[in-house]
Amino acid sequence: MKTLRKSVRFYQIWVFKLSDPIHIPVLKEEVVFFLNCKKGKFFVDGTVGCGGHAKAILEAKADTFLLGLDVDEEALKEAERVLVPYEGRYHLVEANFAKIGLVLKSLHQEKVDGILLDLGMSSLHLAQAKRGFSFLRTGPLDMRMSKKGSLTAELIVNRWSQARLKEIIQKYGEEKWAGRIAKCIVEERTKAPIQTTTQLAEIVAKAIPRRYWPHHIHPATRTFQALRIAVNNELENLKQFLTQALDCLTSGGRLVIISFHSLEDRMVKKTFREWARENKVRPLTKKPVVPTQEEVKQNPRARSAKLRAIEKI
Ligand SMILES: C[S@@+](CC[C@H](N)C(=O)[O-])C[C@H]1O[C@@H](n2cnc3c(N)ncnc32)[C@H](O)[C@@H]1O
To answer: How many Å from the N-terminal Cα to the C-terminal Cα in the chain?
Structure first.
């Protein structure tokens, strides 16, 4: 009964937030502060999304310039709409931040003063059932951030072996019930293909004994995270980006990364530490900066955000 009441409360919070059409940028003031937005500087927002952080960066100082990248053409359209008042001061490109070096080279801008990555999904993704990211809205099991990608969650769920499913759910979802979930998925798909988000969410919820359901998140959260990471090659993209990021910064240039799960945050933390040990950067955040309680109240999506920043020496 207690668990049920908690779940109901959880659904109410999220149904309310999902109906909100606008993506609220997380840790907005902190991003502007750590990027050191000063006159005449050139910034890259590698995950421009709905343009929330980009707008804040352009607003902070009058003659800054911003290059916004995103793999999602729908997000770029939204960013274009939001950034209309800053015409002439930004350029948007449909590109993966894993290719940042190449993108900058093609624009003859090899070094920039600051780069931001705000990883993960936007509210635009969650709000549209057809994108397949939300376990609360019935939609196709898609989960592609870029519609040009050929791998979908439906393909993984219906075609990958039980062992491979278990591996990604364990590794990318850090889900201790991965074995049972993978087994249930395989059992269900032999009856009929698993085609919708809510169908998968129910299978996952049934695979985990009710008394072990997590208290503050939906039982399918970790499995959905794992599938999303696999579909979008998220960890590999971040790794590729980190191998080029320092070369793309001027000396004194800043890199700010907001992550939403421990796999990404660990990679960022480890890389920033290595760079600091090699005297390549000055850490700007000893510990990750997290949102205040007030921000989380206004924007529950911010609750797991961690911001880390460095300055190139
Ligand atoms: C959390 S949202 C960013 C929201 C944005 N900061 C704002 O204030 O509106 C993350 C965005 O990054 C995009 N994205 C994810 N992986 C990407 C990648 N490898 N390269 C470029 N964009 C990516 C997603 O499509 C999404 O629009």
So the answer is: 57
Helix ranges, the chain (H):
2-18, 28-35, 52-60, 73-82, 100-106, 123-127, 153-159, 162-173, 178-191, 197-207, 221-232, 234-248, 262-277, 293-298
Buried b (16+ CB within 10 A) or exposed e, 59-80: ebeeebbbbbbbbbebbbebbe
Per-residue confidence (pLDDT) for residue 22, from 0 to 100: 66
State whether the beta carbon of 145 lies less than 6 angstroms from ligand 1.
yes
Q: Is the dihedral of CA 128, 296, 292, 295 positive or negative?
A: positive
The reported pLDDT for the residue numbered 13 is 40
Question: What is the rounded distance in angstroms from the CA atom of residue 145 to the CA atom of residue 94?
Answer: 12
Say which CATH topology domain 28-123+234-312 has.
Rossmann fold (3.40.50)
The ranges assigned to domains in the chain are 28-123+234-312, 130-232
The 10s digit of each residue's pLDDT in 124-150 is 899 899 999 999 999 999 999 999 999
Give the architecture-level CATH label for domain 130-232.
Orthogonal Bundle (1.10)
Residues 95, 88 contacting (CB under 8 angstroms) = no
Global model pTM greater than 0.85: yes
Ligand 1: residue of 121, 122, 232 to mutate (most ligand atoms within 8 A of CB) is 122
pLDDT digits (tens, 9 = 90+) for 24-39: 999 999 999 999 998 8
Per-residue pLDDT band at 95 (split at 50, 70, 90): very high
d(CA 177, CA 4): 20
Amino acid identity for residue 259 in this structure: S
pLDDT tens digits for range 167-182 = 999 999 999 999 999 9
Residue count of the chain: 313
In degrees and rounded to multiples of 5, residue 95 shows phi and psi of -155, 155
Pocket probe for ligand 1: among 47, 119, 125, the residue whose CB has the most ligand atoms within 8 Å is 47
